[in-house]
Amino acid sequence: MTVKIYFRDEDKWLEGKPGDSLLDVALDGGVDLEHACGGFCACSTCHVRVEKGMELLSEMEECEEDLIDEARDSGLNSRLACQSKILPGASGEIQVHIPSWNINAVKEEG
Ligand code: FES
């Protein structure tokens, strides 16, 4: 069972399986998504917007809620990519938008 994930900014379709996080899928598929803390729910650089298919992803836990609250420009469909895992038995499509300020902010520093 797989879920198709569309990374809108890169115009790229990738496939994920239950238990994979959006960050896993992005990195495996060559999508440049920041992840300063390495996926441990301790930064918020992996902040993305889930534009479709939120119901296919795990619920937010407290640490993610706290970081999203503090994240710049967060909204109702904001998630941390490293904490958003594809649910068991999920099938369908997810659409993800990576806020451009997120990418640019990190690249400019480097
Ligand atoms: S990579 Fe740090 S919270 Fe997701």
What does this structure look like?
This protein is of the alpha+beta class and 110 residues long. The protein has one domain: Beta-grasp domain (Ubiquitin-like (UB roll)), CATH 3.10.20.30. Helix content is 24%, strand content 23%. The protein is built from 3 helices and 5 strands. It has helices at 22-28, 62-70, 100-109, and strands spanning 3-7, 12-16, 47-52, 78-80, 92-97. The chain has a 5-stranded mixed β-sheet. It is globular, with a radius of gyration of 13 Å. The chain binds FE2/S2 (inorganic) cluster.
Provide a compact summary of the structure.
The protein is of the alpha+beta class. The chain is about 25% helix and about 25% strand.
Q: Total strand count, please?
A: 5
How many helix segments? Answer: 3
The CATH superfamily bears the name Beta-grasp domain
Largest sheet: 5 strands, mixed
Total individual domains: 1
CATH secondary-structure class: Alpha Beta
Indicate the mean pLDDT: 91
Shape: globular
Low-pLDDT windows of residues: 104-110
Query: Bound small molecules, which ones?
Result: FE2/S2 (inorganic) cluster
Structural class: alpha+beta
Q: What portion of residues is helical?
A: 10-25%
N- to C-terminal distance: 39 Å
Widest β-sheet, arrangement of strands: 2-1-5-3-4
Q: Architecture, CATH level 2?
A: Roll
* CATH fold category name: Ubiquitin-like (UB roll)
Query: From the alpha-carbon coordinates, what is the Rg to the nearest angstrom?
Result: 13 Å
Beta-strand fraction estimate? 15-25%
What is the N-to-C succession of helices and strands? EEHEHEEH
